[in-house]
């Protein structure tokens, strides 16, 4: 049996140990040696999250980095592992280390400064204990909660998000007295909208969109747990 090795230094090594901060020049310095090492393939950082990092933070050209890899490693196959999408430029970089430290301390408190909101988070694991994503809820004093979720693309289509969201909703109803749920989704995110509909969410009224200042490219979905409990056997358990 033949055994081949795929090197992930430039992609996973950079992501896990350098916070995606491995610059093109640092990769170029060892690229020829990597090419001669005999790997079956070398993974290169050209997925969406790396493109964003190169352009926004490192101020480098990701396409020139890709061309450099082709020149410096002509004898080894180059591959990438990732979803077929680009991460949007929505979240700005941290203002400063002090700002980031203060934000993390605030999040670790698990509640708003006035105590009127509870911030709850749960990780999602596969049956093999692999981290797959998270679900979260902001529980308000009026008995409502805003929920959100995120799942790595390689775990899509396996029902993990739905199972995790259902478990969270039961927890919110049974232990936090939540009676109404809200969620915001992108209008063109059909996958997320289908999940919310399967969970019993419906489109919120226009006045609620205005009251909560929902952006034009987003929709507000809502779910009345009291009425759902009467018809959904999962909620009655």
Would you spell out the secondary-structure blueprint of this structure?
Layout: E1 6-7, H1 9-17, H2 24-36, E2 41-43, H3 48-58, H4 62-72, E3 77-79, H5 97-108, E4 117-125, E5 131-140, E6 144-151, H6 160-175, E7 180-186, H7 190-198, E8 202-203, H8 206-211, E9 218-224, H9 225-231, H10 233-236
Parallel strand pairs: 1-2, 2-3, 6-7
Antiparallel strand pairs: 4-5, 5-6, 7-9, 8-9
Helix pairs in contact: 2-4
General description of the model:
The protein is α/β, with parallel strands linked by helices. The chain has 2 domains: 6-79, no CATH class; 97-236, Gcn5-related N-acetyltransferase (GNAT) (Aminopeptidase). It contains 10 helices and 9 strands. Helix 2 packs parallel to helix 4 (62-72). The longest helix has 16 residues, at 160-175. The model has no long low-confidence stretch (mean pLDDT 86).
Alpha-beta content class: alpha/beta
Q: What kind of oligomer do you see? A: single chain
- Average pLDDT reading: 86
Number of helices: 10
Estimated radius of gyration: 22 Å
Based on the coordinates given, report the CATH architecture of the largest domain.
3-Layer(aba) Sandwich
Q: Largest beta sheet: what is the strand line-up?
A: 4-5-6-7-9-8
Helix content: 40-55%
> Remind me, CATH topology of the largest domain?
Aminopeptidase
């Amino acid at each position: 049996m033949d055994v081949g090795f795929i090197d992930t230094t430039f992609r996973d090594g950079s992501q896990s140990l350098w916070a995606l901060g491995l610059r093109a020049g640092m990769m170029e310095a060892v690229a020829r040696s990597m090419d001669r090492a005999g790997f079956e393939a070398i993974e290169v950082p050209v997925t969406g999250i790396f493109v964003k990092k190169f352009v926004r933070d490192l101020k480098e050209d990701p396409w020139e980095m890709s061309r450099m890899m082709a020149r410096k490693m002509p004898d080894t196959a180059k591959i990438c592992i990732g979803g077929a999408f680009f991460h949007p430029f929505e979240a700005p970089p941290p203002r400063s280390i002090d700002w980031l430290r203060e934000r993390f301390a605030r999040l670790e408190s698990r509640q708003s400064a006035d105590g009127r909101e509870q911030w709850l988070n749960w990780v999602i694991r596969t049956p093999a204990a692999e981290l797959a994503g998270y679900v979260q809820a902001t529980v308000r004093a009026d008995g409502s909660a805003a929920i959100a979720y995120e799942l790595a693309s390689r775990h899509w289509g396996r029902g993990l998000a739905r199972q995790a969201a259902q478990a969270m909703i039961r927890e919110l109803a049974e232990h936090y007295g939540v009676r109404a749920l809200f969620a915001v989704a992108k209008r063109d995110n059909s996958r997320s909208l289908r999940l919310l509909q399967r969970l019993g969410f419906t489109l919120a009224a226009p006045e609620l969109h205005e009251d909560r200042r929902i952006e034009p490219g987003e929709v507000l979905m809502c779910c009345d747990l009291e009425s759902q409990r009467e018809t959904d056997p999962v909620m009655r358990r």
